[in-house]
Amino acid sequence: MPVLVASDLDRTLIYSAAALGLTMPDAQAPRLLCVEVYQSRPLSYMTETAARLLTELGGAAAFVPTTTRTREQYRRISLPGPPAKYAICANGGHLLVDGVSDPDWQARVSARLADECASLAEVRDHLMNTADPLWVRKHRVAEDLFAYLVVERELLPQEWVKELAVWAENRGWTVSLQGRKIYAVPKPLTKSAAVREVARRTGADLTLAAGDSLLDADLLLAADRGWRPGHGELADSGWTAPTISALPERGVLAGERILQEFLRAASPAR
After folding, report:
1. GO: which molecular function terms (predicted)?
2. Using the 8-state DSSP alphabet, how is residue 229 labeled?
């Protein structure tokens, strides 16, 4: 019985040094494997145990990395195990098949965005006009699909984030605060839509998923079973659903636990 595993990457399976959450004594810390290098420096990690589990998962299921990262950012990551035939980037805006973006999928996404929500230009202008340079460090547009800000969290007014969320909601967009980044993403741009397309193409009978942020909620709900770690937007808000398991682990050890759960769920089907 074909099994599809669609997982968010950052703060779900892979972790920056700041997000590792190593609370144990140094001598008891797990061995780490670097899985991403940026500007000649190590950037993201998983435990060596998680790396072994991910390699094992590649033999039990079709593993689909599912990320809000751009294609360029995704390609910096070198995950253990067999290369993924399918990968989802830009929050569902790009469906990669053997590393190449599927043009038919791109066209379908573009048509939905044009029909169902305000333009990227309008949203970007609003961010430029309302975000205070005092706490904004960078304005970015990803793949001409969505926008995000890099901010100083300690200076960021929470009221501004709430007001932005209401403004965006009325225009068919979603706002998500993840670490030092504030994302503004069109509602039709979803990981779940892309995962459903991969499930259709692969004939998957069982879909498993994991994620930590608001932008992962639709992905988790679209899966037959889903898991979220003990950190992140979803955990902070207490978000859950009948098919979702809320794990207690936080930081890089949560990635290990998620992969254990994937393997347990996939193995009986295999």
Report:
1. hydrolase activity
2. -
